[in-house]
Design the sequence.
């Protein structure tokens, strides 16, 4: 698959309009969507990349266990606050917070998305 085809595949999966648009404009929108993952603070909106590429049954499990991420920096900040100076010493809560941050790490490294498009 060519790089252009990979870009189009990714753009369509994350909801970027591709019809009748130049490739550079599409690439810019995909890049902006990736950057949005880092600054999102809305706890009701799940991270785009995981939501677009992970099987629905896995997403359902992550949602039930509350580890589905809503924003990369938001999840990191919450975990740091949770563990700072003993604010939360429950190992279960800290483990689930760590799992949420691990999913943010996966969401933030979009290389796996491009590899899946190959």
Sequence:
């Amino acid at each position: 698959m060519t790089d252009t085809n990979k870009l189009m595949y990714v753009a369509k999966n994350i909801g970027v309009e591709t019809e009748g648009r130049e490739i550079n404009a599409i690439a810019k929108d995909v890049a902006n969507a990736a950057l949005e993952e880092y600054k999102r603070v809305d706890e009701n909106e799940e991270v785009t990349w995981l939501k677009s590429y992970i099987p629905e049954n896995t997403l359902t499990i992550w949602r039930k266990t509350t580890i589905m991420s809503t924003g990369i920096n938001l999840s990191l900040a919450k975990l740091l606050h949770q563990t700072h100076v003993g604010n939360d010493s429950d190992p279960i809560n800290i483990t689930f917070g760590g799992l949420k941050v691990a999913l943010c790490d996966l969401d933030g490294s979009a290389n796996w998305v491009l590899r899946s498009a190959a």
Remarks:
- The two ends are 6 Å apart (CA to CA).
- The CA atoms of residues 6 and 117 lie 6 Å apart.
- The helical segments are 3-14, 23-39, 48-53, 56-64, 72-83, 91-108, 111-116.
- DSSP finds seven helices and no strands in the chain.
